């Protein structure tokens, strides 16, 4: 931990109602990474959530006035916020006072309670990981002092919705765990023998069922791990995605599919032991799984959508292969199978992937965040 003077030490509160450790969602993991980076710099960070926690943590505060069970959809959460009313405002304010909060980060206009940002001496920040619904975002924007987004993709999307993004800051998502990458000898073995791997939550934009369905002609083993998040588009939507995944996998003999996700600490090690990682998303405001794969030297295959080309790269220093969305899921599998067959190109992409990831260490991102909102 950096030794900074007590008077320069900040207390930052993150609000994310669905937050639990090891949740299979980018907002949760990015929040944990930024909180970790702040701790490592010598600041304090707490997280306010409405979700039940697996075990007590002094830096995680559970909101008692917001009666919500997870997973839930947007409309259900809005109703819970409305029913909590002023009691929720008072609870948040009392927590800020008790913890001496200097900066309050509302991690999303709805799920991060930006739409009910409280009046407090703490500086207020809205983290727009996704643009979401105007009924939430428009209210949140008039209540906060700073707005941050994980990529220019989000800024572009906001402008398309008619929002003025002058003054918004881009603060990328950070890496929560810095797992060692395999050395060159190990990476060479992985190139020749390791499976293709896919990791994602059961959301329609993650496109997992379609990817698995297109694996029927696959000739290399593939492992696909999926999990439920605390939010979904409609009640039971994630269950439907899982059923479609299972049906597709039943006709794809080379695909090993399992649900339940994995711990955040285990994710980089699992991605490190892949030959290639496919990120089949149709929308991706950042692309945290792609970054985690790159951080351990595993090349990424993904579509040319949203922020993924900027993150993975498209030139000589790219950390993977970008596939035109118009070519479909078969093209993702083909690129993932073809890449390991060229050892020279594979080694180049592996090295480039690792070095592209170095700018996203948690202390680096935390320093950018403090500079932007202090």
TrEMBL record:
It holds the Pfam family Glycos_transf_1. Residues 198-354 form the Glycosyl transferase family domain. SUPFAM superfamilies: UDP-Glycosyltransferase/glycogen phosphorylase (SSF53756). InterPro entries: Glyco_trans_1, Glyco_trans_4-like_N, Glycosyltransferase_grp1. Keywords: Glycosyltransferase, Transferase. This is Glycosyltransferase family 4 protein. Residues 26-175 form the Glycosyltransferase subfamily 4-like N-terminal domain. Its EC number is 2.4.-.-. It is an enzyme of class 2 (transferase). GO terms for molecular function: glycosyltransferase activity.
């Amino acid at each position: 931990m950096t030794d900074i003077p007590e008077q320069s030490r900040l207390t930052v509160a993150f609000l994310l109602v669905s937050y639990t450790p090891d949740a299979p969602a980018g907002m949760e993991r990015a929040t944990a990474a930024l909180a970790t980076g702040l701790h490592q710099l010598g600041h304090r960070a707490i997280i306010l959530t409405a979700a039940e926690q697996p075990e007590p943590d002094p830096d995680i505060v559970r909101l008692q006035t917001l009666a919500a069970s997870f997973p839930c959809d947007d409309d259900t959460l809005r109703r819970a916020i409305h029913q909590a009313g002023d009691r929720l405002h008072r609870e948040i304010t009392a927590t800020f006072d008790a913890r001496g909060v200097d900066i309050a980060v509302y991690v999303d206009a709805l799920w991060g309670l930006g739409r009910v940002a409280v009046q407090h001496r703490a500086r207020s920040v809205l983290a727009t990981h996704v643009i979401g619904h105007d009924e939430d975002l428009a209210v949140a924007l008039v209540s906060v002092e700073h707005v941050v987004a994980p990529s220019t993709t989000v800024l572009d999307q906001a402008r398309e919705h008619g929002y003025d993004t002058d003054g918004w800051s881009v603060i990328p998502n950070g890496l929560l765990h810095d797992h060692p990458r395999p050395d060159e000898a190990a990476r060479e073995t992985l190139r020749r023998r390791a499976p293709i791997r896919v990791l994602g939550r059961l959301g329609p934009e993650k496109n997992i069922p379609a990817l698995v369905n297109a694996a029927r002609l696959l000739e290399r083993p593939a492992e696909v791990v999926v999990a439920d998040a605390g939010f979904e588009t409609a009640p039971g939507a994630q269950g439907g995605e899982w059923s479609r995944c299972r049906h597709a996998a039943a006709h794809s003999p080379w695909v090993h599919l399992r649900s339940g996700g994995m711990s955040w600490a285990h994710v980089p090690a699992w991605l490190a032991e892949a030959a290639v990682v496919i990120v089949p998303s149709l929308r991706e405001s950042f692309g945290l799984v792609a970054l985690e794969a790159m951080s351990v030297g595993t090349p990424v295959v993904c579509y040319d959508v949203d922020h993924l080309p900027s993150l993975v790269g498209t030139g000589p220093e790219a950390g993977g292969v970008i596939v035109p969305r118009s070519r479909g899921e078969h093209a993702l599998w083909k690129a993932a199978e073809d890449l390991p067959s060229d050892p020279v190109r594979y080694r180049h992409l592996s090295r480039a992937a690792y070095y592209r990831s170095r700018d996203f260490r948690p202390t680096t991102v935390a320093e950018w965040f403090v500079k932007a909102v202090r």
